[in-house]
Amino acid sequence: MLLPFRRTHLFRTLAHTAALPSSPAAIGAAISPSHQRRYHAPPPSISTASLHHASLLLREHHHAPLLRRHTTTSIILRSAAPQATHPPSPLPHRPCPHCCSSPCRQLTSSRICRPFTKSSVLPPRETIIPRVTTSHETKLPVYTTAPLSMGSSPPQCQGVKGRRTMATYQPLEDKVAGESQTRGKPIRCRAAVSRKAGEPLVMEEVMVAPPMAGEVRIRIICTSLCHSDLTYWKLKEPPACFPRILGHEAVGVVESVGENVTEVAEGDTVLPIFIPDCGECIDCRSEKSNLCSKFPFEISPWLPRHKSSRFTDLKGEVLYHFLNVSSFSEYTVVDIDNITKISPAIPPNKACLFSCGVSTGVGAAWRTANVEKGSTVVIFGLGAIGLAVAEGARLCGASRIIGVDTNLEKFDVAKKFGVTEFVNPRNCGDKPVSQVIGEMTDGGADYCFECVGFASLVQDAFASCRKGWGKAIMVGVDKPGAMLNFSSVEMLHYGKSVMGSIYGGLKPKSHIPVLLQRLVDKELNVDNFITHEMKFEDINKAFDLLAKGKSIRCVMWMDK
Question: Of all residues in the chain, what percent carry a pLDDT higher than 90?
């Protein structure tokens, strides 16, 4: 078994000795008391060769400033005596002995978290979404708040700054054995390139450069088509740019990592997510927002950290990125702050939906609106996002979920996601849809979600809200430059509110494990989102199906 020591810790341990230890025995004697305090266990026997190597390193760096030795480097000391292998654990993290009995996300390279400050407070061990069960006698939903299963995502430690580390304990031999043969080299692979606005994507071979510092190169397993891809595929004015590799809903496997990346390792299954979650800035540490201030979200043609592209075609022309992901390629490069590690046991065709659509809709009801038990919800647009909002509202205990759409074929599908009533604006006669909803709900709905991306529908949603506490939540993506027009008197006198919801207000590395556990527990309905599955080379057929409203989610497999 390997015993990891941080170089900084080893230097600081020996910095207070009277003289630089010059022999392996002296180093061992200096390490022993510190190891006893730090790891709550006596140190293992250390081989003479390993201690001699440590001695050389110490003598080399003895006169360098100790505080400059960061956690990006470490000393690995091999135990001389055979040690028992660490037993496999169903938990994604090792228990933390310094803060709580449950596994801790705030791990350093030595797998031990930093001690809590006095102001640190653990979050409650209960999920925010109530579990829903059905009474066989009354056939009515029974709502109970159940504690989060320890087999899913552990509670996140609060009050500790720094990057959250998702890597699990893994012996060095395993990592060396699984090293990628292509690490550090460009990869030639297939990609669906959007050359001109609105024209069919071109399947061609491209070059994917190695990841730079803080980046991860991923082999995509499968990817799905989101309506945002369709919007920017058609868009001709900025922020549209061509040639571009679209796509942002996907699941993949880490092929290689850049410098300073410790959160994931080669072979890990990950979700690339367009919203960054650095875990370091004031916004990422706050529970009030999911908008990272270190890497603010923007529709950029570059990767966020180094402001450059990793894609070129075979002629050397730069291909632009999309939403920090660009999943319409067999390989892509994503920043580590846009990566969330997940269990490889989750089916890829279901997992990829959590990169955007399902998470955005469920999160909008759960996190942004905070839908309450017994409330009335109205959803404008019953596409993938609208159905995900319905699923989230159902999980939160909404008693009435009203769907508004002009496509009658969607009504039967919406029933599977908990929608109880339907309104077709074309059948409302001379009445505006807001008046019809007001009559149905005796004054307006508690929560109204716009899930299409039309400014006019946002105003309809606002008009359909109950005065005093009604909330209109904008979830759909409209064209850049679209403006909203509200009456100031209506805003002031009626006490309504309008909210925006990007990625459902979710923090990817904290909330996605919770939703995935709901999927594993068969409480979150995902199967009905997937209406089509096909080969990657049939991607233009998927665009056609979505544009005609015949598809909710189409999953494309890279190797099928």
Answer: 61
**Region for 39 from its dihedrals, namely left if φ exceeds 0, alpha if ψ lies in -120 to 50, beta otherwise:** alpha
What pLDDT score does 373 carry? 96
Do residues 182 and 255 make contact, with C-beta atoms less than 8 angstroms apart?
yes
How far apart CA 103 and CA 122 sit, in angstroms, is 12
pLDDT 10s digits, 449-507 = 999 989 889 999 999 999 999 999 999 988 777 888 888 888 888 999 999 999 999 99
Spatial distance between the Cα atoms of 93 and 40, rounded to a whole number of angstroms: 19
Residues 14-26: tens digit of each pLDDT: 444 444 444 545 5
Tell me which amino acid residue 299 is.
I
Phi and psi at residue 454, to the nearest 5°? -120, 130
Domains of the chain and any CATH numbers: 2-78 (no CATH), 186-355+525-557 (3.90.180.10), 357-505 (3.40.50.720)
Tell me: pLDDT of 237 over 80.
yes
Q: What is the DSSP string of 481-531?
A: T------HHHHHHH--EEEE-SGGG--HHHHHHHHHHHHHTT-S--GGGEE
- Distance from C-alpha of 252 to C-alpha of 223, rounded to nearest angstrom: 9
Which residues have C-beta within 8 Å of that of residue 264, sequence separation ≥ 6? 166, 167, 216, 254, 257, 270, 336, 339, 341
CA–CA distance, 257 with 179 (Å, rounded to integer)? 10
The DSSP secondary structure of 323-359, one letter per residue, reads TTT--SBSEEEEEGGGEEE--TTS-HHHHGGGGTHHH
